[in-house]
């Protein structure tokens, strides 16, 4: 089964160290009468499932009274499943503390900004910063680990469940005391904190750490941005510490278990720190129709690809502990239902973008509680229908192909800088109406998805050598070490594109005192920024007021017509586009080529985009933010010359292509996200692992939601060079 990969460093290129493709479902035997259990196990085995996930919300069953444990229900359920050949992933059940705990120790509850304690009856209502809650978390984890230490049916553990999905903020006295202790450990002296937070502004200095307050949103004016960033650094520290308590116990009890966490909403988690280095791999719960409904990004296939690529950028290949199988709903949200064939297609999209395991949520739906219409593989009436058939088909196929899939990573020709906690939080602390780095990057990712360009997210500390180009979406914070890494990448032949405002703040979230983008980036790019300013949003009617969580959101404000037309034109080569959000005027050093100029208003004729030769490659500076039109120009004039081209030329809209590869094999995934047939030309030579025969170029016809995995021939044909080079 899966083995721990503790020695493997964090890397977007990292596969999971396993010889088994985990396929199965989260399962809740406590939700049904025991008479269902054997039938469930037999049906799972018949479907080709090899794994279930259990007990993430069962603390009240396992510890019905403080210090009294009862494992009987899960012992019997695990035994029934094990005898049918189904292994179990156990979960620490700390997302839902039992009522006896919150009643006896109310100080464990999170407190909102208005002083209201969170309530029992929901989930994630406990405060991860609470020492009392940590004590109880360690006790239940240790009891479960020791009880199942020698159970051969248990192969690994999931920590908690979707940390911070229901919220991470807390403002009570317990949080305040822990925040003050965190700051004292970080800064050592109050003078250092005052310097970092800019205590001379608005008389916000403190005399001692016990005077420090929590950053309330507009009470009554904005809080200092470094104060806000440090609060979210603290929340990330608290989350990692809480998980670390559990990981230490699990590792010490049985080092053969793998340990992971399942991400839901990604908030206040630092994936480049201890949170991820503690784990063997990450899990990512993926509900494409839910994200599409909530975010309106551009289609269910597109939004799924975006979320998966972001996740893979954190630590590499992952598993999907919860893959949408049907209609999903809570009282306040609901999703569309996957059509016939779509559930299988969504599962293969997860595999194509880095999943080394997929578990369909859930085995059967609950008949009670806040998710009675969150459908599973089996329906409420205990009848398996088309979703069961699709799950069975997928499980059989992916298990047969596991030796081809496992050990491969997802190909990326274009990397987008991502996975950096400080840059995310620094933007949120003072957004000035600008898109976040991820929002900006989404425009480029969307273009790549629609044109089937091998693209994903990567941190500058990762191995850049497999890329052809790297785009940095206006990272406010920058370090000299990252400059050295991207310079080495450029010298080896890579293309680096730096977005506007990159490097304009330091580690304390202060605006730097050198001319932007700072000494090392200025020298590398061959420019300095002489002036910057905001532009009217494309299609907008004025500037912005900022509101929401610490100014993270923006509200459009109607302005007079004279103020609503501050839009500048940008000319690059023969193309001219309207700029979005920001202009920068660039001072260009000798040896740096101007490849784009402002073409209107007072900035007309001044440099807006430059290119500097660095070794075999080049470094481009773009003095604005992306727009859809600008991405089109960059793709034609910058990315294509760098070798960034579609994996398959002229592929129909709605069909996605991705490559997973290793030193000895390349798998081309061609997936139809549409509810209608599609015909794909220019398909390279190879064997279709999901179909019959061998494809030797020409056309591939896919039915609605059809899937193809082509093992590419290791022969470079001139017409296929874009794919195989």
TrEMBL record:
Documented EC number(s): 3.2.1.23
CDD domains assigned to the protein according to its UniProt record, in alphabetical order: A4_beta-galactosidase_middle_domain
Cited Gene3D superfamilies: 3.40.50.880, Glycosidases (3.20.20.80), Golgi alpha-mannosidase II (2.60.40.1180)
Name of the top EC class for this enzyme: hydrolase
Annotated ranges, domain Glycoside hydrolase family 42 N-terminal: 28-399
Family annotation (Pfam families): Glyco_hydro_42 (PF02449), Glyco_hydro_42M (PF08532)
Ranges for domain Beta-galactosidase trimerisation: 442-644
Catalytic activity, as annotated: Hydrolysis of terminal non-reducing beta-D-galactose residues in beta-D-galactosides
Superkingdom classification of source: Bacteria
Keywords carried by this UniProt record: Glycosidase, Hydrolase, Metal-binding, Plasmid, Zinc
Family: Belongs to the glycosyl hydrolase 42 family.
Protein name (record): beta-galactosidase
Source organism of the structure: Mesorhizobium huakuii
């Amino acid at each position: 089964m899966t083995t721990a990969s503790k020695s493997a460093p964090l890397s977007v290129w990292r596969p999971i160290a396993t010889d088994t493709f985990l396929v199965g479902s989260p399962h809740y035997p406590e939700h049904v009468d025991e008479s269902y259990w054997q039938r469930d196990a037999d049906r799972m085995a018949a479907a080709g499932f090899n794994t279930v996930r259990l007990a993430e919300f069962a603390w009240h069953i396992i510890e019905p009274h403080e210090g009294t444990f009862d494992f009987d229900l899960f012992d019997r359920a695990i035994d029934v499943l094990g005898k049918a050949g189904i292994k179990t992933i156990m979960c620490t059940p700390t997302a839902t503390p039992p009522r006896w705990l919150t009643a006896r120790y109310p100080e464990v509850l999170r407190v909102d900004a208005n002083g209201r304690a969170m309530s029992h009856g929901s989930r994630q209502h406990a405060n991860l910063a609470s020492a009392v809650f940590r004590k109880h978390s360690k006790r239940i984890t240790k009891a479960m680990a020791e009880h199942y230490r020698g159970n051969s049916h248990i192969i690994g553990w999931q920590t908690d469940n979707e940390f911070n999905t229901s919220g991470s903020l807390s403002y009570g006295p317990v949080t305040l005391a822990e925040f003050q202790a965190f700051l004292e450990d970080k800064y050592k002296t109050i003078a250092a904190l005052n310097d970092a937070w800019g205590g001379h502004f608005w008389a916000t200095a403190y005399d001692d750490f016990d005077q420090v307050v929590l950053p309330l949103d507009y009470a009554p004016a904005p809080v200092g941005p470094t104060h806000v960033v440090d609060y979210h650094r603290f929340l990330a520290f608290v989350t990692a510490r809480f998980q670390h308590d559990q990981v230490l116990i699990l590792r010490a009890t049985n080092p053969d278990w793998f340990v992971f966490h399942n991400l839901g909403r990604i908030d206040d988690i630092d994936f480049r720190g201890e949170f991820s280095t503690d784990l063997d791999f990450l899990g990512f719960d993926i509900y494409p129709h839910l994200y599409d409904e909530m975010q309106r990004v551009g289609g269910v296939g597109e939004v799924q690809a975006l979320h998966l690529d972001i996740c893979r950028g954190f630590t590499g290949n992952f598993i999907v502990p919860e893959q949408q199988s049907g209609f999903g709903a809570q009282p306040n949200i609901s999703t569309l239902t996957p059509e016939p064939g779509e559930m299988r297609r969504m599962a293969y999209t997860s595999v194509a973008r880095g999943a080394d395991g997929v578990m369909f949520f859930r085995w059967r739906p609950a008949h009670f509680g806040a998710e009675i219409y969150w459908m599973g593989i089996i329906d409420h009436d205990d009848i398996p229908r088309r979703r069961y058939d699709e799950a069975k088909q997928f499980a059989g196929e992916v298990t047969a192909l596991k030796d081809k899939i496992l050990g491969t990573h997802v190909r990326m020709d274009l990397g987008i800088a991502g996975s950096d906690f400080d840059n995310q939080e620094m933007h949120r602390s003072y957004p000035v109406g600008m898109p976040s780095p991820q929002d900006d990057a989404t425009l480029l990712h969307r273009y790549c998805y629609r044109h089937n360009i091998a693209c994903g997210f990567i941190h500058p500390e990762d191995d850049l050598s497999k890329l052809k180009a790297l785009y940095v979406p206006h990272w406010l914070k920058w370090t000299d070490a990252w400059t050295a890494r991207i310079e080495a990448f450029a010298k080896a032949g890579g293309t680096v594109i730096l977005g506007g405002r990159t490097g304009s703040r330091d580690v304390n979230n202060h605006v730097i005192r050198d001319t932007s983008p700072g000494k090392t980036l200025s020298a590398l790019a061959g420019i300095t920024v002489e002036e910057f300013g905001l532009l009217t949003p494309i299609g907008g009617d004025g500037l912005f007021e900022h509101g929401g969580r610490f100014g993270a959101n923006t509200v459009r404000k109607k302005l007079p017509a004279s103020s609503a037309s501050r839009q500048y034109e940008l000319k690059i080569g023969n193309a001219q586009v309207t700029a979005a959000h920001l202009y920068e005027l660039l001072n260009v050093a000798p040896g740096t080529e101007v490849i784009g100029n402002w073409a209107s208003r007072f900035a007309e004729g001044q440099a807006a985009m430059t290119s500097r030769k660095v070794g075999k490659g080049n470094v481009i500076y773009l003095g604005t933010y992306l727009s859809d039109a600008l991405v089109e120009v960059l793709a034609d004039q910058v990315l294509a010359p760098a070798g960034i081209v579609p994996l398959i030329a002229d592929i129909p809209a709605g069909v996605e292509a991705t490559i997973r590869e290793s030193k000895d094999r390349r798998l081309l995934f061609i997936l139809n996200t549409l509810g209608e047939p599609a015909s794909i030309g220019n398909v390279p030579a190879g064997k279709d692992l999901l179909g019959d025969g061998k494809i030797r170029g020409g056309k591939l016809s896919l039915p609605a939601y059809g899937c193809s995995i082509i093992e590419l021939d290791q022969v470079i044909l001139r017409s296929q060079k874009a794919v195989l080079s």
